[in-house]
Specification:
With 302 residues, this protein is an all-alpha fold. It is built from 15 helices and no strands.
Length: 302
């Protein structure tokens, strides 16, 4: 494989597509439970549209985060930027133009969905919010990540807008019940964003990047992570009867060991040791992915 192609794949970080895939599929399966069927072409095109929007954020962030990424000595597959632009094989404008191309692809996806008869007013509103959030995360004039709002932006996108978009494409409705059901997953996404920010703390602070973790400090971020992860794992039971079905909630308990090990990894001050960054992030991502995958399995067999 050519070195530049490898660098571009590194820039894209395809592993992160799972962050949107899981809530998208959960919401689509909730729609199937309501209406009794899934429109598979719409499901696929909708997912590709979401992924294109996710790439807008990814590429813009790589372009506007060059300073802090160059300073980061503790990069992991989950944090610190891809490092592709710092390797010298890709010009920074590659990331910038890729963001605009991804934006165009997301619009093409919307047009394709319209041709499939899946677009309504709610779809347009959600798509507009998704695009706005994708651009506003790191691109001027918003630069939410610089203002301590990037974590909230990501949480709203993956835990609310993406599920609502997936559900709307299948049902044609904007579901308040789904939005409320997503709140526990929002806590999980927010927890993961806090954990991701800890390895980046020193580089972000040195570059003047005012992320939430920089503003509150890694110690408080770790405490907030514990609270958010527990809320995200336990609070879905509050939706029993109107949100998640009992089968899904019972299966979700299988994720308890992963949640426990992730919480245990933050005991004491060991989480501040760079040698533990990757392990802790793997445990945090593992807890999030395990809960999400188990929920998908639960909906498939419920």
């Amino acid at each position: 494989m050519p070195a530049r192609l490898r660098a571009f794949i590194q820039l894209t970080r395809p592993l992160l597509f799972f962050v949107s895939l899981i809530p998208y599929l959960i919401a689509a399966l909730m729609a199937r439970r309501e209406i009794g069927e899934l429109n598979y072409p719409v499901l696929l095109v909708g997912l590709l549209t979401v992924w294109a929007g996710q790439l807008v954020t990814r590429y813009f962030n790589e372009y506007y985060d060059q300073e802090t990424d160059a300073l980061n000595q503790h990069r992991t597959p989950y944090s610190g930027g891809s490092g592709a632009l710092q390797g010298g094989l890709l010009h920074p404008r590659t990331a910038l133009w890729s963001a605009f191309i991804a934006l165009g692809l997301s619009v093409l996806g919307l047009l394709w969905l319209n041709a499939l008869g899946a677009v309504n007013v709610g779809t347009l509103v959600l798509f507009g919010l998704l695009v706005l959030a994708a651009v506003a995360y790191s691109a001027p004039p918003f630069m939410l990540v610089q203002r301590g709002l990037g974590e909230v932006d990501v949480t709203l996108v993956f835990a609310l807008l993406v599920p609502l978009f997936a559900h709307n494409l299948q049902t044609g409705q904007l579901s308040l019940v789904l939005a409320l059901t997503c709140l526990p997953f929002a806590a999980l996404i927010f927890a993961m964003m806090l954990l991701v920010g800890i390895p980046d703390y020193e580089a972000d602070r040195a570059a003047g990047k005012g992320t939430l973790v920089v503003r509150i400090g890694p110690e408080r971020a770790a405490r907030w992570y514990v609270v958010a992860l527990l809320l995200g794992f336990i609070s879905p039971w509050l939706t029993l009867g109107w949100g998640l079905p009992l089968e899904v909630l019972l299966l979700q308990m299988l994720a308890a060991p992963m949640v426990y090990f992730s919480l245990r990894s933050l005991h004491g001050q060991t989480y501040l040791d760079p040698a533990n960054y990757l392990r802790n992030l793997r445990l945090g991502a593992g807890a999030l992915l395990t809960i999400g995958v188990i929920q998908i399995i639960g909906f498939l067999i419920a």
